[in-house]
Amino acid sequence: MPAPTLTDFVLAHTTPAPVPLVPEIVLHSAVEAMDLWELTDHDQPPFWAFPWAGGQALARHLLDRPALVRGKKVFDLASGSGLVAIAAALAGADSVTANDIDPLSLAAVELNAAGNGVAVTTLPGDRLDGDAHGADVVLAGDVFYDARITALVLPFLTRAAARGALVLLGDPDRAHLPRDRFVRQARYEVPVPLTLESTETRSATVWRA
């Protein structure tokens, strides 16, 4: 019998379900975060297994305003489940690249993109020393969750904006978001998993660099 693949792992521990704020998109999602985290044996939670609040807000924003990405080259940083990347593809982006350092994330992105009938290119590894491969639009959901990650991500986003890319973020009021560096675009009330957020709804804002 062949060894289980990363795709097999995602399929075994998730169930396809509509995203609460973006029901047009169906993601392979898990029910219990801590149990799945133990199975992955990773330092970070399984970000790929849940529709986080910032990503939901940003995905909703793109589907409601498709002109932001239509016909453009899009780069989705720390893609997780691929929710934002899939929304960009559904909104008419010319090409979408989903980047994440977690191989399980990229397996989930591929499954989720196929399940939603869109093409998304996955890009592994840490790409924060670049400027998003020349993308016209750079997207990031839920990236400011601790000080160390913020210090790494902010220069990347700043470089992309400086060369003229449209940089959009989705964030549920995390403490490390540098609000003085961004302009608020829209705000959403987002249904979230109670086991992850200790609440059933979180406010999330879409910001532009």
Automatic annotation (TrEMBL):
Isomerase among keywords: no
One example of a Gene Ontology biological process annotation: methylation
Record's signal peptide: none
A matching Pfam family: PrmA
GO molecular function list: protein-lysine N-methyltransferase activity
Keyword vocabulary terms for this entry: Methyltransferase, Transferase
Name used for this protein in its record: Predicted nicotinamide N-methyase
Species: Lentzea xinjiangensis
Lineage: Bacteria, Bacillati, Actinomycetota, Actinomycetes, Pseudonocardiales
